[in-house]
Design brief:
By secondary structure, the chain is an alpha/beta fold. The protein is 37% helix and 20% strand. The protein has helices at residues 4-10, 20-31, 60-68, 74-82, 88-95, 125-130, 132-155, 171-184, 193-199, 209-213, 218-228, 242-259, 275-288, 304-312, 324-327, 439-452, 472-483, and strands at 38-45, 55-56, 102-105, 111-112, 119-124, 161-163, 189-190, 234-236, 267-270, 295-298, 319-322, 337-346, 349-352, 369-375, 381-388, 397-403, 410-416, 418-421, 424-428, 431-432, 468-470. Strands 13-12-1-5-3-19-20 form a 7-stranded antiparallel beta sheet. A 6-stranded parallel beta sheet has the order 7-6-11-10-9-8. The longest helix is centred in the N-terminal third of the chain and has 24 residues, at 132-155.
């Protein structure tokens, strides 16, 4: 029998992880005889978190695992029957349900931007409707946290960032999936042991203040920890007074280890106080003791701005433990991801659909689409263009397009040297068509993306806006449908 944690990892038994109206719409479509109606949905997000110039796509594997195992159990059906809303015909349909959808998606770890179809779902309308909520739940959350992690790691420059957030995470799965997303975003390890087991991530951790307080003296506590874990000895030096006792006691223990012939890199953690000042004092005291390259880890409610500020102050910190602000995306706790119908198959073929709003930012981009990224001769991204599925797209030169918000406005990408189609088939008619990617390979994708994007898009404040355009043909269609949303039907 699977444990609860296995269920979350494999995404089994989650058919009822959905909003009630998804089921009422499914039942309505079934009663209306539309169970084989083919539709196309796009998942995209409308805006980035404040001061952020990019997002890191994450959560796709979790969604695909859910889709692979999507079944209604006997207990699910008993519960739904008890609601006295659904008839036996619908419940019988659910008892035999297996997803027949096809999915295309941007690979996890890729930098993505507002308005872009990060995931496309096509299939029977009942199937495509049911999975909306679960998709949004899994992909919105992990993309948000991976993006936050990438910003924190950018601020830390080449220093390792340790994710310490489990105890402040939003519940067990909020901690498990967020730890995964943090690793995708560039963190080097996690304190979350379950995430280490499930996702094969490096785990890290030392001891708490309670370890020190449980001994009669701080020096005795440090000696005991060094004796038990000589190769993983990072000492927390601020239980009492870091300058008067913590750092000197740690140095004494490291000297004793050196005298016994133990080859170690001395390491301490600072968890309170003026981290810049204390780190400089710590580095100086360790250097005077003959330790030229100590590891000084800082923690204590850190975020990307504080890390960048400590860097500017010349803090002698070379590893960062980040928890609450990272695991909760503290300053922007939700991503504005949505899942919208963009096309429906009729006797005339695929017909575009569009949500129209007086707020132009909420007007969707109609039709089945391709997403193409253009690069300059140096391999740096210039911008992305959305093309209709049937369009042929140029690979270089001056790339014409239209504004997404004002599709009558002509825009161009200049000096394009190459192009890349971002959406890949990952699920075909209910079956996975790609082997699951390892977390290491996804993280490598993110690091490669981070290296190739120009610095102006990665600034922690006032980043440049990456250009996402509509093709001329798509722009003209959207412009016409804004005037008459039913014009393409």
């Amino acid at each position: 029998m699977s444990t609860c944690n296995d269920c979350w990892h494999k995404r089994e038994g989650l058919a009822l992880l959905t909003d009630f109206y998804e089921l009422t719409m499914m039942a309505g479509h079934l009663k209306d005889g539309r169970m084989e109606q083919q539709v196309s949905f796009d998942y995209f997000f409308r805006s980035l978190p404040p001061h952020t110039g990019f997002a890191v796509a994450a959560g796709l594997d979790s969604f695909l695992r859910y889709l692979e195992h999507l079944r209604f159990t006997e207990s699910d059906l008993v519960y739904l029957k008890s609601l006295n809303v659904f008839d036996d015909t619908f419940l019988d349909y659910l008892a035999k349900f297996k997803s027949r959808c096809s999915v295309r998606a941007v690979p996890e770890g890729t930098f993505v931007f507002p308005g872009e179809p990060v995931i496309q779902v096509e299939g029977p309308i009942l199937d495509a409707q049911l999975i909306e909520t679960a998709l949004l739940n899994m992909v919105n959350h992990q993309t948000l946290i991976a993006t936050k992690a990438a910003r924190v790691c950018l601020a830390a420059e080449d220093d390792p960032v340790l994710e310490f957030g489990l105890r402040r995470a939003h519940g067990p799965d909020g901690g498990l999936s967020a730890s995964r997303a943090c690793y995708i975003g560039g963190c080097t390890s996690t304190s979350n042991v379950l995430a280490g087991k499930v996702y094969h991530m490096p785990v890290a951790g030392t001891h708490a203040h309670s370890w020190v307080m449980s001994f009669s003296t701080e020096l005795e506590a440090f000696r005991a920890f060094a004796r038990i874990y000589p190769e993983r000895c990072v000492l927390l030096v601020d239980t009492y007074d870091p300058v008067k006792s913590g750092i000197p006691n740690a140095i004494q223990v490291f000297c004793e280890m050196r005298d016994r012939g133990i080859d170690i890199r001395p390491a301490v953690r600072l968890d309170s106080g003026d981290l810049a000042k204390l780190s400089k004092i710590c580095h100086s005291m360790m250097s005077d003791a003959g330790f030229e390259d100590p590891l000084i880890v800082a923690s204590n409610d850190l975020n990307e701005d504080l890390i960048a500020d400590l860097k500017r102050q010349g803090a002698c910190i070379n590893a960062w433990g980040v928890g609450t602000h990272l695991i909760t995306a503290y300053d922007a706790p939700a991503l504005s991801g949505v899942y919208k119908l963009v096309a429906i198959e009729t006797e005339k073929g695929w017909q575009p659909r569009m949500k129209v709003s007086s707020n132009l930012e909420k007007a969707t981009d109609p039709g089945r689409k391709q997403l193409v990224r253009y690069y300059d001769a140096a391999g740096q991204p210039l911008g992305d263009v959305l093309y209709l599925e049937e369009e042929q797209w140029p690979e270089s030169g001056v790339i014409p397009g239209r504004s997404r918000k004002n599709p009558h406005a002509v825009r161009r990408l200049k000096n394009a040297a190459s192009a890349q189609l971002l959406l890949e088939p990952v699920f075909e008619k209910g079956k996975r068509v790609q082997s699951p990617k390892t977390l290491e390979s996804i993280r490598k994708t993110m690091l490669e993306q981070r290296d190739c994007f120009p610095e102006e898009y990665k600034r922690l404040r006032n980043p440049e806006i990456f250009r996402v355009l509509l093709s001329t043909q798509l722009g003209e269609m959207k412009d016409a449908m804004l005037m008459n949303p039913e014009s393409a039907q």
